[in-house]
């Protein structure tokens, strides 16, 4: 079994890597909440609700009335309830956020807000099928977490799979692009991309850039009011005219394309030669907080930033809607067809006469 197969099969177990990467990004300081407070269900709920109220960044972006949710769920909590019952109440409350960057751990269980569709898409992608039926001459880049490339069988089309935005040497993408300089097009597959480092995303995207474009801004929540944020930091695409692939590029996405994978798409979709085919992405862009702790030992994280497009809109809770919508089902995969991949090949043939 290749490293690629192993990584895809074990992807569910790696969801926590998104949290670990964010912890490393913001430092290893632990934030203890209510350290002197009593360990009671009512106090755990109050500490939890108030911490979100003071620091969570996306109430307005996601149109959440946090005070109303308190009125709904606080009466369900009492000091006679067991922890399993408290878990049900608190996870039901934050499910309204529909934000898989909001994660709670109780020591044995992990809950991600709004993660149902993301998880369902696992069955809609098969690495075994992809590499056995559609791609040949595959090379795995060992320095990077989940990067491989090859050629679409019987076509002059390059294929790149990028399963995360982490690795030791993102500049290796320039070597990949040079290997494809005589191809007619590239299919860039970021389905099941688990995110990682936004800087890594920007460096990979540079290899496909057609120029410098303003693409998004970031603000971090910094006050007690829901609309308290620091100054905007504006981000642009990078450009290197000596190392850029500007022939047709098809980027494949699914519901589990998330976080830094979606930041990557913010770069790519600024380029005229890039077309997105597949399913809408997760819609979870923000960096997460340091790990938080409740008196009962539960841990959790949440979003602390908002990402805005140049027009002031946000894709949080929406995701990147593809230019051409098509998605696999578990049945199509079981029947040996990746219809997303096939649609990309057909599109290149029909629109660009790629052989």
From the structure above, extract its key features.
elongated, seven-stranded mixed beta sheet, Transcription Regulator spoIIAA, five-stranded mixed beta sheet, 355 residues, 2-enoyl-CoA Hydratase, Chain A, domain 1, 31% helix, alpha/beta
Structural summary, described in words:
- The protein has 355 residues and is of the alpha/beta class.
- It has two domains: 11-118, 2-Layer Sandwich (Transcription Regulator spoIIAA), CATH 3.30.750; 120-284 and 309-352, Alpha-Beta Complex (2-enoyl-CoA Hydratase, Chain A, domain 1), CATH 3.90.226.10.
- Helices cover 31% and strands 18% of the residues.
- α9 (198-206) packs parallel to α10.
- Residues 5-32 have low confidence and may be disordered.
Instruction: Report the principal-axis shape.
Output: elongated
Largest sheet: 7 strands, mixed
Helix-residue proportion:
25-40%
Question: Could you give the distance between the termini?
Answer: 31 Å
* Number of extended strands: 15
How is the CATH topology of the largest domain named?
2-enoyl-CoA Hydratase, Chain A, domain 1
CATH superfamily of the largest domain: 2-enoyl-CoA Hydratase, Chain A, domain 1
- Radius of gyration, in angstroms, nearest whole number: 21 Å
Secondary-structure-based class equals alpha/beta
Query: In CATH, what is the class of the largest domain?
Result: Alpha Beta
- Total tally of structural domains: 2
Q: Which band does the percent of strand residues land in? A: 15-25%
Uncertain stretches: 5-32
What is the topology, as strand order, of the major beta sheet? 4-5-6-7-10-11-15
What is the helix tally? 12
Mean pLDDT score: 91
